[in-house]
Design goal:
Beta-lactamase, globular, 6-stranded mixed beta sheet
């Protein structure tokens, strides 16, 4: 055989070998993926042969259900409360990808989870049709309903925003709302053409209704970040307490900087000498900018933010398999100049929650929860229990401490300061007051560029007899003047609704 023919023969053999390897890879390694692919028509038909499990809140209210149909797909996924729970649940469509809790709990909802192996085996002997399991959430009906209604009817007519509420002592989410929202029934319909058209319309909507602003986006936190600045200052200097008198004033200019200064949002609120507690109560920018530059420094400030969870993806469960997807990390951004040196103006701006500091509403609720829970930050979760079709419990989530960024002593000092923000007549968060409960919080007004209105924030908590009941973060996007006050009012409504539901007065 001459050389050209040998080369052709070698190439043919190599191609046959590659083809053989590819066939084995697809038949052995990828077989299960193809078998369970949601775009596989046979898989789809089989999946709709039996009712999908329910998703319900803490009181048993059904949030996602299966309705019998007369078409080839025997059951339709339905969402009775429509827009209110859309971002939390996600949706289960026929020809699109599932999202959020519907996706992450798909195996249990369809009855194919390893946790349901005994049920399937029993069914083989009894002839009982397999059924999906139920997913029971930590969500409070009262807190969720109030959050959804109050956010949607806010006094400033803000169209975009988010609310997250949680139990500080366990980490269980009590409410999660994002607006604008959408009706997931439009995407779960068996009319695949209509579902696709509805998805395209939602996906191109300028208001971004598919975006879960509670966990999938970060925003400048404004003065709510002063809680972390206070924590960093009191951790770095144990002699600094809420009653310590510090320099205030109308303006602050960092040392050795000639063309930069920080001013307060309102004149006359911050005298030349003021206590740390009062500075937080009236939200004195000059105190916290000075504190960040001269008492804390960039490294310690960033370190404290990271201790609270900034720069890290919040892991809602250890294996992240059932609670959430699409969570973005809050961050502080760089506080250095182009030459890599610490930039005092950048530290000053960051210390009042501006410049490149960004956080999600979930992070805001976690900050407030940590202060309320004596410095312990609990792992957030929303799936409380997995319930078999016979109503027995297949699994449940155990509360777990995620991190401890501050000591109990520092937490108590921060509680005292945050109580003043709400209880004092000159406090910026007085709209969040609730009779019979100890309410603490911090408002925030955050700039969002020169041509946009400021964001309005409130993060806070409620205690009863010193025990944490609920923490909450309310975010009003581009709310403008009065945004933080309205956020505080809404937060008070949500916290009161939950306390009333639990019989706490």
């Amino acid at each position: 055989m001459n050389a050209p023919l040998r080369r052709v023969g070698v190439v043919v053999l190599v191609l046959f070998a590659l083809l053989f390897l590819n066939l084995n890879y697809r038949q052995v390694v990828k077989a299960d993926d193809y078998r369970t692919d949601s775009h596989n028509a046979r898989v789809q038909t089989t999946e709709y042969e039996h009712p999908r499990g329910k998703i319900a809140d803490a009181k048993g209210t059904v949030l996602a259900d299966a309705q019998a149909t007369g078409d080839s797909l025997k059951y339709l996924r339905t969402y009775p409360l429509k827009d209110e729970y859309a971002h939390l649940l996600g949706y289960k469509p026929v020809n699109l990808a599932s999202t959020n809790l519907e996706k992450l709990n798909n195996d249990f909802l369809t009855g194919t989870s390893d946790k349901q192996a005994v049920d399937r085996l029993t069914g083989m002997f009894t002839g009982k049709e397999p059924a999906g399991g139920n997913v029971l959430l930590t969500i409070s009906k009262a807190a969720q309903d109030t959050a959804y209604q109050a956010l949607g009817t806010n006094k400033l007519k803000v169209k975009s925003g988010a609310i997250v509420a949680m139990d500080p002592s366990t980490g269980g989410l009590l409410a999660e709302v994002s607006l604008p929202s959408y009706d997931p029934n439009l995407l779960s319909t068996h009319d695949t053409g209509a579902a696709l058209a509805n998805y395209k319309a939602l996906n191109t909507d300028p208001g971004k209704p598919l975006l879960n602003r509670a966990v999938q986006e970060v925003y400048p936190p404004g003065s709510t970040f002063k809680v972390i600045v206070s924590a960093a200052a009191m951790t770095a200097d144990s002699s600094l307490t809420p009653s310590t008198v510090v320099p205030g004033g109308e303006y602050y200019k960092p040392p050795q900087v000639s063309d930069f200064q920080i001013k307060n949002s309102h004149t006359g609120v911050c005298p030349d000498q003021i206590t740390v507690k009062q500075a937080l109560t009236v939200s004195c920018n000059t105190v916290f900018a000075r504190m960040g530059v001269e008492r804390i420094g960039a490294d310690k400030l960033k370190s404290m933010a990271q201790a609270f969870g900034f720069e890290q993806e919040p892991r809602l469960v250890e294996d992240q398999d059932r609670n959430y997807c699409g969570i973005v990390a809050s961050h502080t951004g760089p506080m250095t100049s182009s030459d890599g040196r610490v930039d005092p103006p950048a530290v000053a701006q960051s210390s009042i929650g501006q410049r490149e500091v960004k956080m999600s509403p979930l992070q805001g609720a976690m900050i407030a929860a940590t202060v309320a829970n004596d410095g312990k930050q609990m792992r957030p979760y929303v799936v409380d229990r997995l319930q078999n079709s016979d109503l027995s419990i297949a699994d449940h989530t155990e509360p777990k401490t995620l991190r401890t960024p501050i000591t109990a002593d520092v937490a108590h000092e921060l509680q005292d300061m945050m109580f003043s923000v709400v209880s004092s007549d000159d406090g910026t968060g007085k709209s969040a007051r609730i009779s019979g409960l100890q309410v603490g919080g911090k408002t925030g007004t955050a700039q969002d560029g020169e041509d946009a209105e400021d964001h309005g924030w409130f993060i806070g908590f409620a205690l009863k007899d010193g025990k944490p009941i609920i923490s909450v973060a309310v975010f009003l996007q581009n709310a403008g003047k009065g945004g933080s006050g309205e956020a505080a009012r809404i937060a008070g409504l949500v916290m009161k609704a939950y306390a009333d539901e639990k019989g706490i007065r």
